[in-house]
Design goal:
PH-domain like; 28% strand; alpha+beta
């Protein structure tokens, strides 16, 4: 038996609250602090000297961290929206299953698979310890799906 399947997994949906947390975690806070430091120094000097020009400069410098923060927030928010499907390739043989994707490859022997559940969308193959491998059925032809189903049934997995 040799069945080869290519399919893309769907992009991940990230709820708005999780996106905010991810953005806050990735925010380069040192930039905001570095931008606010001149405003603080200018404000201190303006207060000590009573200079209106320095006070105006201090207020203008206070806007700099806000602008940097908003631009960074928008850039990070946009980058989180750019999720792409990941294409994986399954090679199914009499010995096992090999799954390859960008930068990874994994081989499962049939002896490691303890049970298989068939849903309308995928075969879910469970290994000892609860590890589950999904094999999308929509990417297979009807003949390939029938051949795999007979194979799994003959092995007592389905």
């Amino acid at each position: 038996m040799l069945i080869e399947v290519d399919a893309g997994s769907p992009p991940l949906y990230v709820p708005a609250s999780d996106r905010r947390n991810q953005i806050m975690a990735r925010m380069p806070w040192w930039r905001l602090i570095a931008a606010a430091a001149p405003a603080a120094v200018t404000g201190a000097v303006a207060a000590a000297s009573g200079s209106l020009a320095l006070a105006v400069a201090g207020v203008a410098l206070l806007l700099l961290p806000a602008v940097i923060g908003v631009r960074t927030w928008r850039r990070l928010d946009t980058s989180l929206n750019e999720t792409q499907p990941v294409t994986r390739h399954w090679t199914i043989t009499d010995d096992g299953i090999r799954v390859t994707g960008p930068g990874s490859a994994r081989t499962w022997r049939w002896t490691a698979v303890v049970a298989v559940a068939a849903s309308p969308d995928a075969y879910l193959m469970r290994q000892e310890g609860g590890i589950v491998l999904d094999l999308p059925r929509g990417a297979m032809t009807d003949a390939e799906d029938d051949e795999l189903r007979r194979f799994l049934t003959a092995r007592g997995l389905l």
